[in-house]
Write a structure and sequence with these properties.
This protein has nine helices and no strands. The chain has 178 residues and is mainly alpha-helical. Helix 2 packs antiparallel against helix 3 and helix 7 packs antiparallel against helix 8. The chain is elongated.
């Protein structure tokens, strides 16, 4: 697996791992989360070293309102494959949502450390720092995220967050001469 968690054509075991989660991935795309949970649990029973199965299990659990279990699934994916950036980013977001801001920052920072140009890692680190009130650090990450040419919807969300944490512009600064 490469650092993004993308399929590596040069690794037959990795290709097999992707093949094993294909059906579950389709179920997730179709928003058939309960069925995906069953499919992924079967994959994990067959191959407990498949990081994609744990990552997709985290997604399915999160979508079925089980954030603590999702957190545990993302952690399992990282135990199997510590360089799986997608799982690390998802873990950062779910930790933030669960109120573990310190953990969210640690995972977001680690994702950025492992892949400094990854927009999603920058997004996760920025949101984690914003949640703690580290506005200057959050701004740096979120502006870097915007420079990565993200999708419109996510960019709009980040711009809205930046408006709340950017320092106010002092319109009276020019009128000090009066």
């Amino acid at each position: 697996m490469n650092s993004q968690g993308d399929k590596s054509d040069s690794d037959p075991a990795d290709a097999k791992n992707w093949e094993d989660v294909e059906e579950a991935s389709e179920l997730l795309h179709e928003e058939r989360f309960q069925e995906a949970l069953y499919a992924l649990r079967d994959v994990i029973k067959t191959n407990p070293h498949n990081p994609y199965a744990y990552h997709f299990l985290g997604i399915a659990l999160f979508e079925t309102a089980q954030p603590e279990a999702a957190r545990d699934a993302y952690r399992a994916a990282l135990r199997v494959s510590p360089n799986y950036i997608g799982a690390r980013i998802a873990l950062s977001h779910v930790l933030r949502m669960l109120g573990d801001i310190r953990g969210a920052i640690a995972e977001g920072e680690e994702a950025v450390k492992r892949n400094p140009a990854d927009g999603d890692a920058l997004h996760a680190a920025g949101f984690a720092h914003a949640a703690r009130g580290d506005n200057e650090v959050a701004r740096r990450y979120l502006h870097a995220f915007l420079a990565s040419n993200p999708e419109f919807e996510t960019a709009t969300e980040v711009r809205a967050i930046l408006k709340t944490i950017d320092p106010p512009v002092d319109d009276d600064a020019d009128s000090d001469e009066n």
